[in-house]
Amino acid sequence: MIRPLSPADVARRVARDIPDGSYVNLGIGLPTLVADVVGPDKEIVYHSENGILGMGPAPAPGQEDPELINAGKQPVTLLPGGSFFHHTDAFVMMRGGHLDVSVLGAFQVSETGDLANWATDEAALPPAVGGAMDLAVGARRVLVVTTHTTRDGRPKLLSRCSYPLTAAAVVDRVYTDLAVLDVGPEGFVVREVAPGVTPDALQAVTGAALRFAPDLAVVHPD
Amino acid sequence: MIDKRVATPAEAVADIADGATVLVGGFGNSGVPVELVHALLEQGARDLTVVTNNAGSGETDIAALIREHRVRRIICSYPRSAGSVWFEQFWRTGDIELELVPQGTLSERMRAAGAGLGGFFTPTGADSLLAEGKEVRVLDGRRQVFERPLPADVALIKADRADRWGNLVYRTAARNFGPTMATAAALTVVQVRQFVELGELDPEAVVTPGIFVDRVVEVAP
């Protein structure tokens, strides 16, 4: 029986791949869960596009500072050693290759590492991009966290993205509720699968040809 | 004698002309110069091009400018947010033009204007719809798009403290676009929480030197 990973389990699996001492930007949504599950054995410096390094967790109720917010506009705190800087410097960090890891959500990822995470084909809403394109091209390593399929069961990992691209050939690794996949010259290579997921079952819900690592393993989140 | 202090937000924005390009600081509700924007609303300038990260929410500041038909065009990275109803309504009916710019490119285009540069190439957005109509070159093995500077007539920003020379320090993440916008406009107007005497700000910690600032006004929190 297939047992998809919970969002917290996916976050724990991502956290394992983030080395101690990394400078990391977590995108809005699923990626923010990663900060909650990184163990105390690692010192990770979180970056926020609005000018924060060393961002800490949400403040206790009543302690919110309306001007100290994260990219999702939620109140946050500053850890000892943290710093504030202006927007251009915040994006120099992103665009200039200074961040070690960027963890992003996605609507679609292609087998060549193209990322679509800023616009769908929905014309009723005004477009909005924020810092998505800067993060996708600038970080040294781009990790994507997403469900393997859409709510109505359509694949999000594809031979080619149908939604407008955020950036081309930028994604290094994808973590879904069903698998961990590397993106490289040979397309998607499945490294790990969730408990009960067979290669055939995974291929059936993926829109690109999959290769499976010879040492294919079952995901252990911790 | 240099004294950039003015008495009221109304006085600080009195000469902003119809058709002006206005940079407005802030990220979400952090660092928005609310009182200056409200003074601009009262002042009545129309046909404005507003450059800002978000497109306002609720009924205040930029949302109010849009609601009162003062904004012809908005240049921003993320106009869609909780409560951005006035922008969305005007956008649907074609009553406001939108130029969508990746956030880092928005900031860097203003920096380029402030630094006297003619533009820059960046990989950000080079393979996206936002590069349409722009020059794309392969530089150092990467596709990069040419982006033009974004100069303005006026910048409205918020800082924490200022002296009469216009030296500024900011508070937490409210700093955001302020220091860059201050360099990119012909007239930079700043609202601060508190005026201090010349010499009171630690020169090692001044974030925006007064050369980039034209007017400061104290707005009690």
From TrEMBL, chain A:
Keywords: Transferase
Entry superkingdom: Bacteria
GO function terms (MF aspect): CoA-transferase activity
PANTHER family, per database record: KETOACID-COENZYME A TRANSFERASE (PTHR13707), SUCCINYL-COA:3-KETOACID COENZYME A TRANSFERASE SUBUNIT B-RELATED (PTHR13707:SF57)
Family to which this protein belongs: Belongs to the 3-oxoacid CoA-transferase subunit B family.
NCBIfam families named among the record's database cross-references: pcaJ_scoB_fam
Name the record gives this protein: 3-oxoadipate CoA-transferase beta subunit
Native source species: Geodermatophilus obscurus
From TrEMBL, chain B:
Oxidoreductase as UniProt keyword: no
Keyword Transferase: yes
An MF annotation (GO) of this entry: CoA-transferase activity
Top-level taxon of origin: Bacteria
UniProt cross-references to InterPro entries, sorted A to Z: 3-oxoacid_CoA-transf_A (IPR012792), CoA_trans_fam_I (IPR004165), CoA_transf_BS (IPR004163), NagB/RpiA_transferase-like (IPR037171)
Keywords, in A-Z order: Transferase
TM ranges: none
Similarity remark: Belongs to the 3-oxoacid CoA-transferase subunit A family.
PANTHER family: ACETATE COA-TRANSFERASE SUBUNIT ALPHA, KETOACID-COENZYME A TRANSFERASE
Name recorded for this polypeptide: 3-oxoadipate CoA-transferase alpha subunit
